[in-house]
């Protein structure tokens, strides 16, 4: 069973962002909820755009379960409205 030990509310705007390294350091799992607006994301370390990448709609959840995924995940807002990702980190 996962043990969560860190949290951040990550604002997603018009520039690609990843998770805060100091917050998820030494953890290999994130569970997140998308709030306020839709986002796009990529897991290959490449910046998504508002038109390219996987979509997360408001209320969607996402679980990533490897350090590689946490290191390489990038997010950007989709429709010109900032989003917030509520992120719980663990192992």
Summarize the structure.
With 91 residues, this protein is mainly beta.
Describe this protein's structure.
This protein is mainly beta and 91 residues long. It has one domain (4-90): Jelly Rolls (Sandwich). Helices cover 11% and strands 43% of the residues. The strands form two sheets. The chain has a four-stranded antiparallel sheet with strand order 1-7-2-5. A three-stranded antiparallel sheet has the order 4-3-6, with no helix packed on it. The termini are close together.
Which tags fit this structure?
Jelly Rolls; globular; 2 helices; 7 strands; 91 residues; mainly beta
SSE pattern: EHEEEEHEE
CATH class category name = Mainly Beta
Q: How large a portion of the residues is in β-strands, by DSSP E?
A: 35-45%
Number of strands: 7
Q: Which second-level CATH architecture applies?
A: Sandwich
Structural class, judged by helices and strands?
mainly beta
Measured on Cα atoms, how large is the radius of gyration? 12 Å
Identify low-pLDDT runs.
Answer: none
Mind sketching the topology for me?
Elements: E1 4-12, H1 21-24, E2 29-35, E3 39-42, E4 54-56, E5 61-64, H2 67-72, E6 74-77, E7 83-90
Antiparallel strand pairs: 1-7, 2-5, 2-7, 3-4, 3-6
């Amino acid at each position: 069973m996962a043990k969560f030990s860190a949290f951040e509310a990550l604002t997603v705007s018009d520039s690609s962002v990843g998770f805060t390294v100091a917050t998820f350091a030494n953890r290999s799992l994130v569970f997140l909820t998308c709030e306020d607006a839709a986002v796009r994301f990529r897991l290959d370390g490449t910046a998504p755009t508002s038109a390219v990448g996987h979509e997360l709609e408001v209320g969607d959840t996402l679980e990533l379960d490897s350090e590689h995924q946490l290191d390489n995940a990038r997010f950007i807002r989709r429709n010109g409205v900032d989003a917030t990702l509520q992120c719980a980190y663990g192992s």
